[in-house]
Design brief:
single chain, alpha/beta, Purple Acid Phosphatase, chain A, domain 2, seven-stranded mixed sheet, 6 helices, 16 strands, disordered N terminus
């Protein structure tokens, strides 16, 4: 595979990010991030951690999706995980079930055979012909609902899956009650449309932000994952919440990131990529791996307590 020029990523320490690094790739079978070398079989799962991947906008059935899926399978062999957050636009162009084999079941067949659970949310390209069957499809694990929650690690982490296509009052009330009731040490939200994004094509969904952000802030959500923009981005933390855009599960939208926005911290719009996250009682560690196997961004988040919401900004 042709190696492309890596777009520089900035490192930062902020209110909720303990540390973050970005690194160029190295040849061979190891991945280097900062001074740390990740070798095959170096880390094995334990009963005290939760590991998962996150990516979106993947369901195109193109070579890029299949190549990245093979890299995910290799990563599973090196550092086992049991969950994938599928961030929407799962089956292009309109969610038609006839496209499911080529655009989901075949590229991720290896992971499905290993028992990896895909937890999906709906994207705008899913709902035209796919809303009904996707929420009931067994490998998307949505339980017949477009929004839902599930816990991992004996309650260590609780995930809140949202339908950002139609975030109406009923869903908002459900989310507020579910977040308030959660006893998890780590609360993670994921949905398709980003409420913070430096993408030129779509950018931040300000109306959605006005409805979702107060709940995430007030109830101690540590991180939120979205897709929609076909870029990878880690924003500066916003009122204690770390936002990621990971819409690069297939071909990225090159040149789409605006690195001059006040929320931008690091990102890549040249390569496809996926995020790999490990959560322990003490910390949330993440690394983003591109199609060449390079770790292009990594860092750790601190736990956070619920905090009163300040006035939300309505700009990028």
């Amino acid at each position: 595979m042709k190696r492309r020029t890596f777009l520089g990523l900035l490192s930062a320490s902020t209110a909720s990010v303990i540390s973050a690094t970005a690194s160029a790739g190295i040849p061979g079978s190891t991945l280097r991030t900062g001074t740390k070398v990740w070798s095959p079989l170096e880390i094995q799962p334990t009963t005290e951690n939760v590991r998962f991947l996150a990516f979106g906008d993947s369901g195109k059935g193109d070579d890029t999706q299949y190549e990245l899926a093979r890299l995910m399978a290799a990563h599973h062999g090196n550092q086992a995980y049991d969950t994938v957050l599928l961030l929407g636009d799962n089956v292009y162009p309109n969610g038609d079930i006839k496209d499911l084999p080529a655009k989901f079941e075949q590229p991720y067949a290896d992971l499905l055979k290993r028992g990896v659970s895909f937890q999906a949310v709906l994207g705008n390209h899913d709902v035209s012909k796919g809303r009904e069957w996707q929420v009931n499809y067994r490998h998307f694990n949505m339980g017949g609902r477009a929004y839902y929650s599930f816990a991992k690690g004996d309650g260590l982490v609780e995930f809140f899956a949202l339908d950002s296509n139609n975030f109406e009052q009923q869903q908002q009330q459900w989310l507020e009650e579910a977040l308030a009731a959660s006893q998890a040490k780590w609360k993670i939200a994921f949905f398709h449309h980003p409420i913070y994004s430096s993408g030129n094509r779509h950018g931040s969904d300000l109306k959605l932000r006005a409805r979702i952000e107060p709940l995430l802030v007030n109830h101690g959500v540590a991180a939120a994952f979205a897709g929609h923009d076909h870029t990878y981005e880690r924003t500066k933390p916003q009122q204690g919440v770390q936002y990621f855009v990971a819409g690069t599960g297939s071909r990225p939208r090159r040149g789409d990131l605006n690195r001059r926005t006040p929320i931008f911290e690091s990102g890549n719009d040249e390569n496809s990529s996926f995020m790999s996250i490990e959560i322990t009682p003490e910390q949330f560690s993440f690394k983003t791996i591109d199609e060449t196997g390079r770790v292009i961004d990594s860092g750790e988040l601190a736990t956070r307590a619920p905090a009163p919401l300040r006035n939300a900004t309505l700009s990028n």
